[in-house]
Amino acid sequence: METIVEIKNLSKNVRKRQILKNINLTIKQNDRIAIVGANGAGKSTLVEIISGSTSKSQGEIKYNFKGKQLRRAIGIQYQQGDWPPGISANDVLTFNRILKNNMYNLDELIDIFEIKDFLKQPLKKLSGGQKQRFNALLSIIANPELLILDELSTGLDMNIQYKIIDFFKQFFSEKDKTLLIISHNSEEIELLANRLIIIEVGTIFLDKPIDYIIKKWGSVRNLMMSYFKGDLINEKDRF
């Protein structure tokens, strides 16, 4: 598969703190990459830089989206979103209908993400779970080449969790799309991802195919438990 994002020696500094340190990463078409790490490890900063919403301090990023503008080629699900007072979900969807081409079937998405009941409510008054569902819908509305999801199922009821995960699983099985998902839900990772990256203190600690992880550790959950318990200190334990 073609490389769509190539990252070389990427670093990010905020004041005197180095958030990312010399990251080298190749993302190919149809990669579905889960990104795992402790709070503050640099996961969100990395995907924000890839999406173009945050600047890098050093390094190089090359994109290959065949002429598509970055903002159209990449869809990103923000965990919250800073909306002006009084703006409703329906207002935002209407705006996106006008601006964006090649949109996914919007009525189908409204049903899948179960947002019909709060379409006319101000976005600032929505619950955390409602905002999560709406932002996930927005990430896919323009049918992007690269989709970035951040804690997709966090704060959602189990029934809607599985409904949305099943939708994305089918979406990626039928289309030549690429996924970056920040997640600590091992079941979600096994269902959606084919590659797992662990970020530790701003560096890539591990980057392996999901099939390899399941073969070596039995499951993604077992690997994550070993990592967060501190059992993967030696390099030989990771390979």
From TrEMBL:
Residues 5-226 form the ABC transporter domain. GO terms for molecular function: ATP binding; ATP hydrolysis activity. Keywords: ATP-binding, Nucleotide-binding, Transport. The keyword Endoplasmic reticulum does not apply. The keyword Transport applies. InterPro entries: AAA+_ATPase, ABC_transporter-like_ATP-bd, ABC_transporter_ATP-binding, P-loop_NTPase. PANTHER family: ABC TRANSPORTER ATP-BINDING PROTEIN. This is Antibiotic transport system ATP-binding protein. It comes from Spiroplasma chrysopicola DF-1. The lineage of its organism: Bacteria, Bacillati, Mycoplasmatota, Mollicutes, Entomoplasmatales.
